């Protein structure tokens, strides 16, 4: 399970080092799935990702504010269907693809693509998903995005505090996420999901900011 105490990583300057060897990158793109292909293999959260896709349609304001590249960018995504952040923000990139801004290529990180994931550690030093790696149409690495924005991470922290505030003295309050009982963990995830759904537009705008910055 991904952790809740993460931070935003990227974008980086367009002159950044190319991390993935050319032959490995070519193989990754050749083995990757489309967004529809990823949906077809999902075993969990299919209803949630479909709901998020429906809610993340780009508005006229979004389309006016997003920078359209000369040719669609290429996004290599490392993802899994069990990850709440994948479910929340991969549909945003799918909407960008629908608008002709980018082309999505999706790989499951485990077990066959951990070598790519290891090249993009979270600032905590661990590897978290999703990892979205952006390339120009001619294959130049432009930057990457790990898990969720720093602003969203702060909001999650606030919502966690609010969750425990209405349950003063709860015996599991303050425990690490992975140590919570299944019942409490489910309630917390439901609480976080409900709050995050109310911030869909904000999260979409954060991705527009990231996408625009990739083209600086």
- Structural class from helices and strands? alpha+beta
Q: What sequence of helices (H) and strands (E) makes up the elements?
A: HHHHEHEHEEHHH
Low-confidence stretches: 1-15
- Number of strand elements: 4
Most strands sheet: 4 strands, mixed
Number of helices: 9
Radius of gyration: 17 Å
Task: Summarize this structure as a short list of keywords or feature phrases.
216 residues; 4 strands; 9 helices; globular; alpha+beta
Structural write-up:
The protein has 216 residues and is an alpha+beta fold. Helices cover 46% and strands 12% of the residues. The chain is built from nine helices and four strands, in the order H-H-H-H-E-H-E-H-E-E-H-H-H. It has helices at 22-31, 35-41, 46-55, 60-65, 84-98, 114-117, 150-165, 182-197, 200-214; strands at 73-79, 102-108, 131-135, 141-146. Helix 3 (46-55) packs across helix 5 (84-98), helix 5 (84-98) crosses helix 9 and helix 7 crosses helix 8. It is globular, with a radius of gyration of 17 Å. Residues 1-15 have low confidence and may be disordered.
Summarize the structure.
This protein is 46% helix and 12% strand. It is of the alpha+beta class and 216 residues long.
Task: Present the secondary structure layout.
Elements: H1 22-31, H2 35-41, H3 46-55, H4 60-65, E1 73-79, H5 84-98, E2 102-108, H6 114-117, E3 131-135, E4 141-146, H7 150-165, H8 182-197, H9 200-214
Parallel strand pairs: 1-2
Antiparallel strand pairs: 1-3, 3-4
């Amino acid at each position: 399970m991904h952790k809740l105490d993460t931070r935003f990583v990227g974008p980086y300057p367009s002159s950044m080092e190319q991390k993935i060897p050319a032959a490995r990158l070519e193989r990754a793109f050749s083995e990757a799935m489309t967004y529809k292909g990823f949906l077809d293999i999902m075993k969990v959260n299919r209803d949630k990702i479909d709901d998020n896709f429906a809610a993340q349609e780009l508005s006229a304001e979004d389309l006016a504010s997003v920078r359209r590249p000369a040719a669609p960018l290429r996004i290599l995504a490392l993802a899994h269907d069990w990850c709440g952040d994948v479910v929340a923000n991969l549909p945003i990139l799918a909407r960008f693809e629908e608008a002709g801004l980018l082309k999505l290529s999706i790989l499951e990180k485990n077990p066959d693509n951990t070598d790519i994931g290891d090249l993009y550690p979270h600032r905590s030093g661990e590897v978290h998903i999703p990892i979205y790696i952006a390339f120009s149409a001619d294959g130049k690495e432009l930057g990457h995005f790990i898990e969720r924005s720093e602003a969203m991470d702060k909001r999650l922290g606030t919502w966690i505090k609010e969750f425990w505030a209405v349950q003063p003295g709860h015996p599991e309050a303050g425990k690490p996420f992975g140590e919570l009982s299944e019942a409490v963990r489910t309630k917390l995830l439901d609480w976080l999901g409900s709050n995050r759904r109310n911030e869909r537009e904000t999260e979409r705008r954060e991705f527009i900011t990231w996408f625009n910055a990739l083209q600086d």
